[in-house]
Amino acid sequence: MATSKSFGKFSRRLDFRAKEVARNLNRTVRKVGIVADQALVFGTPVDKGTARSNWRVSINNPEFGVISAYAPGEGLGVGESGNALGAINQGLAVIAGRLPGQNIVIANNLPYIVPLNEGSSRQAPAGFVESAVADAAVAVAKARLLSP
């Protein structure tokens, strides 16, 4: 027979689980944002570093405009790290401040980012944006909102 004491215990367990889901959901959204940002940054072909540097993370609304490369150069190649580090650090800082219910937005406003994604560079195959989205989807699929 159920008692008010057993209902109280059940209610506390449900409340605990609800808070656990909320914490883990926030953690998962942040993790997925980081995975997507890093995949975009590292997947972007690099010549002077501007395209890689312009992956900009924001909360709720996209950033507009473009920025200069963090570490400009010529013929830097896909293994370049200075611009990647600048872009990743910018994204990490923004994502760390994300609050529950807020959207993470990753944008690149360079006019040639679409042609780059379509394969205009010999450094990277077409579809690096779609590949980043697939990486993020895998991170979502692996997420656990409740502990066993």
What does the model show?
The structure is a single chain. The model has no long low-confidence stretch (mean pLDDT 90). The protein has one domain. The relative contact order is 0.20. It is built from 5 helices and 2 strands; from the N terminus they run ααβαβαα. It is mostly helical and 148 residues long. α1 packs antiparallel against α3 and α1 runs antiparallel to α5 (128-142). The chain is elongated, with a radius of gyration of 20 Å. The longest helix is centred in the N-terminal third of the chain and has 40 residues, at 4-43.
What's the total helix number?
A: 5
Average pLDDT for all residues: 90
Strand order of the largest sheet: 1-2
Order of helices and strands: HHEHEHH
Portion in helices: 40-55%
The domain count comes to: 1
From the structure above, extract its key features.
148 residues, mainly alpha, two-stranded antiparallel ribbon, 53% helix
Short description:
The protein is mainly alpha-helical and 148 residues long.
Indicate the topology.
Blueprint: H1 4-43, H2 50-53, E1 56-59, H3 82-96, E2 104-107, H4 113-117, H5 128-142
Antiparallel strand pairs: 1-2
